[in-house]
Amino acid sequence: MTPLTIKHLAAKASFASIVIAGVLMSASSAYAADSDRDGLPDEWELAGRYGSIDLRGNGVRVGRPDVILFVGREPGLAADTPREQLARLKRFFSEVPTRNSDGSSGINLVIIDRGEMPRDIGGLPYTDPRTREWTIPLEWRGYAHGYFLANGTGGGGSSPVCSDWGGSGYGWQLVAHELGHQLGLGHEAFGDSKPSPLYASLMNYTLDVHNLRFIKLLKS
Ligand SMILES: [Zn+2]
Prior knowledge:
Strand 3 (about 65-75), helix 3 and strand 4 form a beta-alpha-beta unit. The chain has two domains: about 40-185, 3-Layer(aba) Sandwich (Collagenase (Catalytic Domain)), CATH 3.40.390; about 190-220, no CATH class. The chain has helices at about 5-30, 40-45, 85-95, 120, 130-135, 170-180, 210-220; strands spanning about 50, 55, 65-75, 110-115, 145-150, 155-160, 165-170. It is globular, with a radius of gyration of 23 Å. The protein starts with 5 loop residues before the first helix and ends with a helix. By secondary structure, it is an alpha/beta fold. The chain has seven helices and seven strands; from the N terminus they run ααβββαβααβββαα. Bound molecules: zinc ion (ZN). Zinc ion (ZN) binds near residues 177, 181 and 187.
């Protein structure tokens, strides 16, 4: 056995500090465990409530990804007007063919209606950060998404400064497209730098529906 030198001691000490750091890291990651990797800590999903939001009542659970979406309505847009479109949007997400850790598929989109914005806020463009601040509660920022629902069917966009925020008319395809940007999707398929008419996605501006139908006919 070789005698311990200062070098050996230093090596042992640094190894110990790595082990301690490792234990601390696993302790902290256990605290913030997110087994379905949806950005919401398991702890909240198991508790069934976070802040003012009833998670259990909205079907949030560990094992299937949940997306929380706070919606602020433009002044004049009644709660009933976009209801059907938002229900269709929710269904669209539930039908996304994900393979979830609990054996289910789909994404649980939880839409929280924050109500009609006051005129001094709702009269601003969605790109104004005050519209986001009004809609997404403080304790949910960094965990939830938000949307400025405009009174009409016109197009919108994603915030150039906050990737959790966007706005448009209330057509479900529009909202799904902008939410796609919030979730990291672009207009082109992964790996493509140019638009492809074959990329069958709501994100694609150049999707050739007729070509797609043609290809489906050939395959059937
Ligand atoms: Zn887009």
